[in-house]
Amino acid sequence: xxxxxxxxxxxxxxxxxxxxxxxxxxxxxxxxxxxxxxxxxxxxxxxxxxxxxxxxxxxxxxxxxxxxxxxxxxxxxxxxxxxxxxxxxxxxxxxxxxxxxxxxxxxxxxxxxxxxxxxxxxxxxxxxxxxxxxxxxxxxxxxxxxxxxxxxxxxxxxxxxxxxxxxxxxxxxxxxxxxxxxxxxxxxxxxxxxxxxxxxxxxxxxxxxxxxx
Length: 213
Description:
The protein is 49% helix and 9% strand. The protein is mainly α. The longest helix is centred in the middle third of the chain and has 19 residues, at 132-150. The radius of gyration is 22 Å and the shape is globular. The two termini are 39 Å apart. The model is unreliable at 193-213 (pLDDT under 50).
C-alpha cells in the first residue's frame, strides 16, 4: 500500500474537475487528487482492483443477460430496455459510492441493431469496424512516422514494429479494405536507407495478417 501511494502521488497531473459526492464537505474536491497514473501498467491494475466491487454488484445484484468489463469500459446486455435503464441508474448510484461518475455521452442504452462502440471498435451484429477516431489517429501517426523516417529520426525496424502492432489489432475486425486503402497512401521516401526498405513496407502493408490459433 505504501508503494501504491508513492506511485499515485508521483503520477501525472490530472484534469481539475470540481465534483461532489455523497458525504463530501465544501472543501473535499480540493483536498483529493483525481484520476489514476496514465502510461503505466499500474493504471490497468488499479482500475481492475477499484472496479472489482462493480463486477460483483452487476453479476450478483443486477444479473443482466451478459456483463463485460475491460478496465474502465463495461457493457450490459438484456432484452428489456426499461430493465436496462433501471440497471443503469442503479450502477450510477453504486459508482457514486466509489467516487466515480460514468461518461455523460457514453453511458446510455443502445439497441444491438444500432451497434455499440467499445474498446476502439464499432461492433455491429454481423461485423466489427474500427471506430472512426482510431482510423483518423492512425492516418496521422503514419504521416508523422513517414516524416520521421525520411528525416532519419526513426529507424525502419522501429517503424515496422509499430505498423505491424497496429495491423495485428486491426485484423480482428472487418478491416481488409480499410487497410488496403490506408497503406496505399503510406509511401516511405528514405534518403539514406535505399529503395529496398520502401519495397518491404509496401509489400508487408498489403499482406493480410494471419491470426495464429
